[in-house]
Amino acid sequence: MQARTPYSVAAGALLLAVSCWGMAPVATRYLLTDLTPIQLILIRFAISTILLLPPLLQLRGQHWSRAKIGLAILCGLLNSIGYNLIVAFGLHFIAASLGGILIATEPIWILLLSLLITHERPHWSVLLGFVVAAIGIGVGTLLGNTSDISLTGTQIFGAGLTLLAAFMWSAYTVLIRPLTAKYGASRCTALTTFIGTLPLFVFYTPQVATNVLHLNVYGWLALCLLTVGSTVIATMLWNYGVAAMPGSQAGLFLYLVPLMSVVGGALFLHEVITAGVLISGVLILTGVCIAQARQFMRQRFPREPLKYV
Q1: pLDDT of 150-163, one tens digit each?
Q2: What is the value of pTM for the model shown?
Q3: Which end of the chain is more exposed for a tag (fewer CB within 10 A), N or C?
Q4: Torsion of CA 224, 18, 108, 247, to 10 degrees
């Protein structure tokens, strides 16, 4: 069993994780000019598994019950197939703006699954922060560019796949917590990544290696950002953080992902930040801060027991 993690450390880990994931679309958009979505996912997970071999080998000799093994397999498949592969297909059929809206439902699914599976009862401040951040997402949606969203058959199919992927990641977030608390974030990340990579090799063709070898310097930098930053470090930090606080509270950090994507797009792709995006960002940050304030204050200013003389 891992030692109790200070709240500030857990929150910092989650913040770094969503920062990496927020920058990932910038690298993904660049790489998809040379790789297909399936090729990119396969390469990401294959390289990540190699990088995670040291913590994976540390699991040798540890006792795992059948229930824990089954849970690890489920989490690995939820990560690679359930989220990454399904979302790649889903986003192929819908507009990026609609995809962002659907993926932003992840904190809602995490809250519901936490109530159903772990029977969490979030504090009112978490619920208030949840509502404020959700309004921020709604404002960004209404004031954003949604002219390319339509209700055609392919859009509905793609939207269904993307929504299913968001649900799968939320299930991964809730189910990985007991494994991480017992075996550690790095080991659980290594094991679930390895398990999730194996079925992806069904999609391997010699063209995958050819396309990767023809990447330029910027392509390799983008690939390193996705593998080392997003798949390895960010997932490890996320697993570490969610093991130390309620799932509903941790899930709120996912609302920061689109905000980080906007910042990354402005910095590296020279995309314009509109007034609607600024208002949305302020509301999202406010909601996340409200949800975290109570626990932050309790750690910063712990109450001392009353002493009666």
Answers
A1: 557 777 888 888 88
A2: 0.76
A3: C
A4: 110
